[in-house]
Amino acid sequence: MNSNNRQPAALLSLILLTFLATAMAGPAVVVEGQWIREAPPTSTVLAAYMVLKNTSDTPLAITRIDSPDFGNSQIHRTVVEDGIAKMLPVEKLQLSARGSETLEPGGLHLMLFDPLRALRDGDTVILVVHDDTGDSVTVQTPVLRNTEETGHAHHHH
Ligand SMILES: [Cu+2]
Description:
This protein has 157 residues and is mainly beta. It has helices spanning 7-25, 148-151, and strands at 29-37, 45-54, 60-66, 70-81, 84-89, 93-95, 100-103, 109-115, 124-131, 136-144. The radius of gyration is 18 Å and the shape is globular.
């Protein structure tokens, strides 16, 4: 273990350099294909889907995705245990360097609670994606009826 004594200083330098590079480059996160699934008017919960891309050479994490049109929000992961699908909150969604994560029906998704206005197919909602470097990205997100066309997602096998 003694041979590792110098690593913390090297790691700190790397973190500082990374921080400076990130600060100069602007937000590293790019959001693509975002949409919110239309829900019945009485529904207090809606789901949003998107692809989150990390355009930087450094891993980062999405810490929060919120919206001025909703009272609360949470990133969820759907897991199947003993044949029962459950949704678990994701505190931090890790994105590897140059990596991406897909939020899609049946998997990762953004749960939006307590809509502050009625949202119908064709409406647009603002989502703000926050990462652990302190940056945020604001995207216009359409509300769409869950047809075959909008429900499709890119599956990687
Ligand atoms: Cu959920």
